[in-house]
Predict the structure of Phosphatidylinositol-4-phosphate 3-kinase C2 domain-containing alpha polypeptide.
Amino acid sequence: MASEPARPEPVLRNGRGRNSERPALIESSLGSIATKFNFFIHNLAQLRFSGLPSNDEPILSFSPKTYSFRQDGRIKEVSVFTYHKKYNPDKHYIYVVRILREGQLEPSFVFRTFDEFQELHNKLSIIFPLWKLPGFPNRMVLGRTHIKDVAAKRKIELNSYLQSLMSASTDVAECDLVCTFFHPLLRDEKAEGVARSADAGSFSPTPGQIGGAVKLSVSYRNGTLFIMVMHIKDLVTEDGADPNPYVKTYLLPDTHKTSKRKTRISRKTRNPTFNEMLVYSGYSKETLRQRELQLSVLSAESLRENFFLGGITLPLKDFNLSKETVKWYQLTAATYL
């Protein structure tokens, strides 16, 4: 019996058969918007969770393992307390971070370099690529003649960064990466006694470097906070020369530094009188109770970077905004009180 002849493969208009059409269909599907979006979500998930190792694996280069807030306890207050070289064997400035956790009456202290803060920020940017994180201080430093001044400026910037970070979404502020950054290391335990004794009073990077006091008037009327910078007395400089002081303020937290206010510069004096009003409009009393006034006194320099003379940070919840408060405040190296 003669076998049935094979049926010819259908030929499409372009002259190719059905089987030859499959690669073109696959290529077309790979180029579709839906497929590209699925690949994006898949890669994003891999990127995010690849940065979260188990507790037995380090998540930061300077920490032996990963920790969580379930182990360590949630943080109630945190600030960059001061900075010093003697805590760091590399002789670079290291920043002392003061931490108060829920259920604790006494604060703890950890010691972190600027590079370690930078590593924290970089890894947060990888793990949370779609979140708006606080801006990180600029790393670039021109020249190396006034490194102490740079450290003073960075302390203020790092403190502002931490306030904004801890005010962010709980997904970010309470992630294992942030907890690991604040977990005490062996070097922290060795130096904590020194920092704890310093916490009892003012602590400056070099004994006697920070001095003086500022007189402020704080009042509130019609949705506006008024900060009058009245006088400053007994400023101290490292080289003994008269500074060119001015005052700069922020309302923290302030991610984008929109709350910066400045006075004029007073030339060649340790006891300037400003009597200058710094105004913050559009804030309710309820909002201000959640803010802190950070005030820094700096010296304006024409041939070098402006340097830090002292500062204070005042929680506005401690003020009776229904009346004017006029008071002298001692300047310290720790701008967060």
